[in-house]
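Anyone have tokens for GTPase Obg? Sequence:
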Amino acid sequence: MFADRAKIYIRSGKGGDGHCSFRRELYVPNGGPDGGDGGRGGDLIFEVDEGLNTLSDYRHRRKYAAGDGEPGGKRRCHGKDGKDLVLYVPEGTVIKEAASGKVIADMSGENRRQVVLKGGKGGLGNQHFATATMQVPKYAQPGQPARELEVNLELKVIADVGLIGFPNVGKSTLLSRVTNAEPKIANYHFTTLSPNLGVVDLDGAKGFVMADIPGLIEGASEGVGLGHEFLRHIERTKLMIHVVDAAGTEGRDPIDDIYKINAELEAYNPDIAKRPQVIAANKTDLIYEPDEDPVERLKQEFEPKGIRVFPISGATGKGVSELLYYVSAQLDTMDRTPVVFEQEYFPEDELIYEELPYTVEVEDGMYVVEGPKIEKMLGYTNLDSEKGFAFFQKFLKETGILDELEAKGIQEGDTVRMYGLQFDYYK
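Reply: yep, here.
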């Protein structure tokens, strides 16, 4: 089974906590603080592996976490950094934030390696908090928390040309004739259930990569017949060869087929529907003295619209060469740089405590102060100690929280709540 999608949980490493300790040595009565810093948490990294072509590695294991940083130690010992975790994916994998569907990274083109979640910074040991007025700091800073995300991995094949059309019109036969690809070929619908890639080599002209997109049917843009899974693989193509059964061996009208497929492309993504198309009128070897030449009907309908029609036979090879050289010439006029999806979601914007604001609200006569920065500070401050409480008061003043409380009309004796901490306000 071709695995081109996966949903996984990823987490970077937590920063190690800073250490609180004091130098204790013979003949050194006032050694001072010597708590070391915590180690950095490991990064969560995605990297392209040229040897992979599916996402099957992520179908059974769903949770991935980088290593946590180790806490600091006494004698200013720095905690060991957490180990980075590298997840390998095939080229063309798009990483999306699961809840919003926004693109985090597109692992194609020049983007071969990307840090998606940075590890948390290690906390500072108490050696950093000594000042002239606070020479015995009894607190250290905790490490920054890990960052976590649930992401969707979507593999979108990278090809210059996509073969599109209804099931059983001969797309796989055409691909196998012009490339070394070996797609499954049989006389029934949906023989091809996954995209097949092949390289077209031409004498005297530039070759290109061609993808056989599994058969589309009416309603594909709404998910009918695995439509979304198939349509996703067209998104990077520069040009589409619309393969139709010119002989009408299954009783369908090729002109009607083209309009139906184009309607599905328009409904799925209007930008895709605007890309250049070429019509390959296939199975001409099965046309027997028709009352009306179906190839001429196709030409009369589409060539005035700028869409060339080539009569071919994937089975015998007749007309295929002319089609391929025309496609190569068209690609020469285009930018062949692979389509790369722009980043829309930035994980580094999340959980940046230093840049997040706090809020001061009045609830039932109580002043409630909240914000990640507040929560973080309370985590590493020992309010039971005189020095820790002095640090807390300084924090309230320097961050502007005291000014904000007074602006809200706080009076002496009023109660302030900060998460699990509750106290009465006095100047």
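Residues 161-332 form a domain with the Rossmann fold fold (CATH 3.40.50.300).
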